[in-house]
Structures are given as C-alpha cells and as structure tokens.
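MODEL INPUT / OUTPUT PAIR
PAIR INDEX: 1
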Amino acid sequence: MSEYSAPTQFIDLAAQQKLIRPQLDAAIKKVLDHGQYIMGPEVKEFESQLREVYWSQACSYVCQWHRCTDTRFDGLG
C-alpha cells in the first residue's frame, strides 16, 4: 500500500473530453478517411494557425523591446 491514501487527480480529462467529444470524433474520422497520417492537411492547418499566433506575439515582443531600449537610450542623452 502506498503512503498516500488516494491518487490526486489534477485534471479531469474525462470531463474535458466529454465537452469536445463530437469534435474529436469528427477530426479522427477525417484523418482516417483521407489516410494522410503524416504531414496531412490538418498539420498544415495547425502550423498555419500556430504561426499566426506566435508570429504576432513575436512581433509584439520585438516592438516592446525596441520601445523600451529607445526610451532608455533617450534618457541617456
């Protein structure tokens, strides 16, 4: 017997999956139907969406850094 009385459940995956089960089933069926298991259209779509999110964030960080350094150097003289 373990020193702990019961396992700690951090995330209720079953409850989360229940909320999106129809979307999961549809996505799995789509991949099984077209058979492109590696680098299929869903991967390209995911990469495109990820690029949009992270590219805009990266640009935002660069702009913030640039403004910060401009302000700091302006204060020096």
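PAIR INDEX: 2
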Amino acid sequence: MVLCYTDGVIESSNKEGGLLGTPGLQNILNSVPSDRPERILPELVERIAETTGDRSQEDDVTMLLYRITDRSIPLRDNLAAPLRWLKSMFVKD
C-alpha cells in the first residue's frame, strides 16, 4: 500500500502544540489495523483527530491510499468507490 498525503496531515498540531510530524503519523499508521483496507483511512482520520484534540485545523488534510491487487474490479464498482468511502465515514459497522 502507498499513502499519499498533503503537508496538512503532518503539520497538524498535537495537544501540546507541537507538530504531529512524520514520526507521529508513522506511529498512528502502525496502530491502525490493516486487515480491512477500506477502514484504514477512516481510522487514520479518527486517530489524527484524537491526537490533535480540540485544536482547530489550519491547513487542508488530504490523503490517498493506494493498494495494488491482482483482481480486476468492474468499472461500475470503480465509479462507486468514492460513494462507498463517503458512506463509511458516516456509517459505522
């Protein structure tokens, strides 16, 4: 898997006022279960929010997670993927 992110992710302030930084992001990534790839980004967003606490976000936070598989996905499913992801952000299993 490959995670791409904007600087707003690692420049998020933690509760002590310091930056989350790359090591902080790596710690969060290591704590997120990878057995369900569709839950990685939502979990990551939740854990970053827990780390930053009530501090307001001053920059955009954008993340893309790429996973290479050996299976073919029908075009209809590919086009519906963003909608499934949005649903996962609001509907908990």
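PAIR 2 NOTE: The two ends are 23 Å apart (CA to CA).
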